[in-house]
């Protein structure tokens, strides 16, 4: 990026680059492109096919995920599903909460453990106003 010492602005100004963000090593378009392919193939395969490094694919996926989390809309959730999965031996669980509305099925939240306090963290994340809009909850019969 070019730097210009502007007499009108009184100081050094850096050229704006709208196709890139900060110090990200890939452009926004390339990050989206690699992120889409990384949904279907391993990161190693994406890097090999498009002649980029594995780190560049990881950076692109990180950017895409962060963008999606920043721009997601959590309003209007009427139905959720709560379940847990074991991820290690010795009863190590993750609690998963999905949106199950017609036309909108997605993972909303993931918490480490399967207790009432973990489920309360989801409610804190969703905030009280959105929790009151939930009409249906689908869950297996665990205590929490």
Your description of this structure?
By secondary structure, the protein is of the alpha+beta class. It has two domains: 53 residues; 61 residues. Helices cover 36% and strands 28% of the residues. It has five helices and six strands; from the N terminus they run ββαααβββααβ. It has a four-stranded mixed β-sheet, with helices on one face. Helix 2 crosses helix 3.
Structural class: alpha+beta
Q: How much of the polypeptide forms β-strand, as a percent range?
A: 25-35%
Give the uncertain stretches in residue-range form: none
Order of helices and strands: EEHHHEEEHHE
Largest sheet report: 4 strands, mixed
Tell me the domain tally: 2
What value does the average pLDDT take? 88
Calculate the terminal CA-CA distance, rounded to whole Å: 54 Å
Please report the total strand number as a whole number: 6
Helix count? 5
**Backbone shape:** extended
- Strand arrangement, major sheet: 5-4-3-6
**In which range does the helix fraction lie?**
25-40%
> What radius of gyration results from the CA coordinates?
21 Å
Concise structural overview:
The chain has 144 residues and is an alpha+beta fold. It folds into two domains: 19-71; 79-139.
């Amino acid at each position: 990026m070019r730097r210009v010492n502007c007499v009108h602005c009184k100081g050094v100004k850096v050229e704006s680059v709208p196709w890139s963000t900060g110090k990200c090593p890939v452009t926004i378009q390339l990050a989206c492109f690699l992120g889409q392919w990384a949904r279907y193939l391993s990161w190693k395969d994406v890097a090999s096919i498009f002649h980029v490094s594995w780190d560049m694919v990881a950076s692109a996926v990180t950017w895409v995920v962060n963008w999606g989390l920043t721009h997601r809309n959590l309003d209007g959730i009427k139905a959720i599903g709560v379940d847990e999965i074991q991820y290690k031996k010795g009863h190590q669980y993750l609690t998963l909460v999905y949106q199950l509305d017609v036309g909108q099925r997605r993972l909303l939240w993931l918490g480490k453990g399967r207790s009432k306090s973990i489920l309360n963290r989801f409610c804190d994340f969703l905030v009280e106003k959105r929790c009151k809009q939930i009409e249906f909850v689908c869950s297996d019969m665990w205590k929490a």
